Structures are given as C-alpha cells and as structure tokens.
Amino acid sequence: MEKIIEGGYVKSEFHNGITSIEFFHPQRNSLPGKILDEMAQTIHRAGNDEYTRVIILRSAGDHAFCAGASFDELLAIKNEEEGLHFFSGFAHVINAMRTAPKFVIARIQGRCVGGGVGIAAAADYAIAMDTAEIKLSELAVGIGPFVVGPAVERKIGVSAFSQLAMDATLWRSADWAQKRGLYAEVYSQTDHLDESVRRMTDTLLHSNPAAMAAMKKIFWKGTENWDQLLIERAKISGKLVLSEFTREAILKFKKK
C-alpha cells in the first residue's frame, strides 16, 4: 500500500510476517506534517496487525535517511496552534514506534538530522551504513530537540544527548553513534547492511511473539507518560518557531 503525499510518499509492504514501511520526500527525505501523520498511522496499523511479527522502517534512496523537519513547513507556521500540530507529528511517530507490540528495525542508509535522529533512536534496533552521520541541528535554527530529546536521551544517555543538542552544527560519525548505542551495527557496504537486516528479521520471525511483546514493554519501561510528555515538548517548539530569531535562522539555513 502506497500513499502519495506532497511529492513524497509513505508505503508499506507485507511479506511472510514482515511489514516494511518506507518513506520518501524529494528534499533529502525531510518530513512534512502529512508524511509524519501517515507514518504514525502506518506504524500503528502494523503494530496491531496480528500477522505482522516484525516491522522494518526505512527511507528511499541511497543518500540521506532523514533530514528532519521540512523547513518550508516550519516557515509556514503562523500561530502556536499550528506549531503544536506540526511538532506533534514527530511525537506521534515516536509514540507509535514505542507502543507497537512488535520490534521495529530501522535501516539507516545515510545521514540523520534532527527528527531523523529521533526516529533512529526510537527504533528497537538500528542498523546503519558507515556514512550515516548524525546531527541535532535544532538549536542552530532557533529551536531545540525537545520532542525527539526523550528518545535520544533514552538511547544514548544524557551526556551524549547534551553534546549533540548543544553542538548543533557538528556532524558526528556513525562510529560515534554506534559506540554510544544509537546504532547496533554499522556496515561499509549496502549489501552487508541489507544482509544484516535480513538476518535480524529472520531471527525475530522465529521468536515467540508473546515473548517479544513482553520484552518490548520491559525495554520501554518508564516511558508510559510519553503520550503527554512529547506533546508538552511539541508546545515548546511550536512557540519558539514563531520567533523572528528562528525564522531568520531557518532562512539562512535554506540559502546554504
């Protein structure tokens, strides 16, 4: 099933117990609000599908995994209500990944920025290319990684998260990300990346679904308040994005 959205798409395919979800946007797989909404709904459906045993989340192309928020959509936000609605999109995707009673494997083929780092962190197991550098660029454009912050902090710890959040213009290598637990495995060749994804999905396909669902609850223990927390964080970003400082910073980034 494929849904075309604003020049991009979200599509899902089911085969032998695996639901593979792929998203695409021509601007380096950035995420407009409608794509975020469709991603959250698709992940939710897969998580509640009795025939799905494992979920693979990936993006299209050979370059960026995800460039984060759409700058065009950020500039179009006119009030706090619209800001809350947009940033809640990232909250809904992360919460859909968190609450799905199936393990989510992320295939990370390239760079992750902002919300893309949050999606990688919300995956239960991320397998990446050695070119998959990461950056939390939010502070550099006048906001902050408020919505994705809990997911990133949970995965890599307060110290590493604060380094990423504060040094918002520095790319960190895939090796840096693996050493801190964001990536489980890193490969230099695409065929090795895909073979690892196949190996991991095959392992999970032959595992007890009830055991995996119970394990996932344990892995995510302590996040039960995220439905509310991430929306509260979205309010912060939704307000900050309206400031002149932020709008000027975003325009400068767009010109680069």
Shape: globular
> Percent of residues in helical segments?
40-55%
Secondary structure category: alpha/beta
Kindly identify the CATH topology.
Answer: 2-enoyl-CoA Hydratase, Chain A, domain 1
Secondary-structure arrangement, i.e. CATH architecture: Alpha-Beta Complex
Biggest sheet features: 7 strands, mixed
- What are the secondary-structure elements, in order, as H or E? EEEHEHHEEHEEHHHEHHHH
Main β-sheet, spatial strand arrangement = 1-2-3-4-5-7-9
Polypeptide structure, described:
The structure is a single chain. The protein is α/β, with parallel strands linked by helices and 256 residues long. It has one domain: 2-enoyl-CoA Hydratase, Chain A, domain 1. The model has no long low-confidence stretch (mean pLDDT 95). Helix 3 (80-99) runs parallel beside helix 4 and helix 5 (149-156) crosses helix 6 (158-166). The radius of gyration is 17 Å and the shape is globular. Strand 2 (8-15) and strand 3 form a beta hairpin. It has a 7-stranded mixed β-sheet with strand order 1-2-3-4-5-7-9, sandwiched between helices. It is built from 11 helices and 9 strands.
